Amino acid sequence: MFGTVIQHRVTHVVAAGGLWWLLSWHGDWLMLSLGAASVAFSVYLTRRMLAIDGEAHYFVLNRELLAYWCWLAVAIIKSNLDVMRHVLSVPLKISPTWVRLHIDPKSEVGIATLAKSITLTPGTVTVDVEEDALTVHALTRDAAEYLQTGDMEYRARDPGRELRSAR
């Protein structure tokens, strides 16, 4: 357990430091030391927050998660093109629809991933989340029917496996 916690802290430091450096692109010692201090402060705050509420949802960057992100990116692009096609057509060909999706919850992270994936996809918005159902507003009936097939729920169930023992 101790080794896993150290591994996650090291991963956090490397990821935060790498992201900081890529976004800032500074190489002088003053900026690098300030960046290192901000990364160290970030790791300290994360550790302290875990001590306060005790909740953590670690994930492993694996093939399933990368495949899900790629699938979601393609779904967002397709949906964006579909919304654009419907909105720019004359006469306007939208059919706003409310749909209640009954879901089989596997974890809170899976439910949140599904709800956020639906909202990220243009033309659909998750407006209410319950334990076993989501209420979604869709711009077209086709989008609502696609959500009812369960394909997105299946893909978003738990793309990154959680490591709850890492606390």
Structural write-up:
The chain has helices spanning 2-24, 29-53, 63-88, 108-120, 141-149, 151-156, and strands spanning 97-102, 124-129, 133-138. It has six helices and three strands; from the N terminus they run αααβαββαα. The relative contact order is 0.15. The protein is elongated, with a radius of gyration of 20 Å. The longest helix is centred in the middle third of the chain and has 26 residues, at 63-88. It is mainly alpha-helical. It has a three-stranded antiparallel β-sheet. A hairpin with a 3-residue loop joins β2 and β3 (133-138). Helices cover 61% and strands 11% of the residues. The protein starts with a helix and ends in an 11-residue tail after the last helix.
Number of helical runs?
Answer: 6
What is the radius of gyration?
Answer: 20 Å
Number of strands: 3
Basic shape: elongated
Regions with pLDDT < 50 over 5+ consecutive residues? 161-167
Largest sheet: 3 strands, antiparallel
Give the integer mean of the pLDDT values: 83
* Helical/strand content category: mainly alpha
Compute the separation of the termini in Å: 7 Å
Helix content: 55-70%
